[in-house]
């Protein structure tokens, strides 16, 4: 059994110590016009896109992106569905760029260039090549600044499962039985038939 630090109660809600200790800062937070929000589903490339954005913003200063672990360089908030902000907050932002995980896997240079263009940064070919190489799955898996090996084992035990596993799309099918795969494929086809997402997502 994993020993977890005791929760602290903040306004009637249990939180882990570091979150509770910083809650006052969260409540006082004021976004700046040039802040960038990265929103992803769990285990869908959050660390990857965070590292890419940080390297784009660092520009030619490649040492800047090594100033600390990714979770120290990119502030991180986690919401479960019951704790999501109200619609008046979450749906009134209109400046989005949507880049699929699959595009990053198929053509990382094009995806990185698209993100850079969205945040108003021009990348030289040399810098684009450098970012592409340094944010490849293999490079990030070996980099202690991005692979979460600096996190204490009491919070993340890499002997049980490394934070960065395979870096491939569609491996979930290997965890399903044939019948489960067939049910999912049928469900996906039915639910996505009236959208254009089925053309961009490869499962």
Automatic annotation (TrEMBL):
<protein>
    <recommendedName>
        <fullName>Sulfotransferase</fullName>
        <ecNumber>2.8.2.-</ecNumber>
    </recommendedName>
</protein>
<dbReference type="InterPro" id="IPR000863">
    <property type="entry name" value="Sulfotransferase_dom"/>
</dbReference>
<keyword id="KW-0808">Transferase</keyword>
<dbReference type="GO" id="GO:0008146">
    <property type="term" value="F:sulfotransferase activity"/>
</dbReference>
<comment type="similarity">
    <text>Belongs to the sulfotransferase 1 family.</text>
</comment>
<dbReference type="InterPro" id="IPR027417">
    <property type="entry name" value="P-loop_NTPase"/>
</dbReference>
<feature type="domain" description="Sulfotransferase">
    <location>
        <begin position="106"/>
        <end position="195"/>
    </location>
</feature>
<feature type="domain" description="Sulfotransferase">
    <location>
        <begin position="33"/>
        <end position="80"/>
    </location>
</feature>
<dbReference type="Pfam" id="PF00685">
    <property type="entry name" value="Sulfotransfer_1"/>
</dbReference>
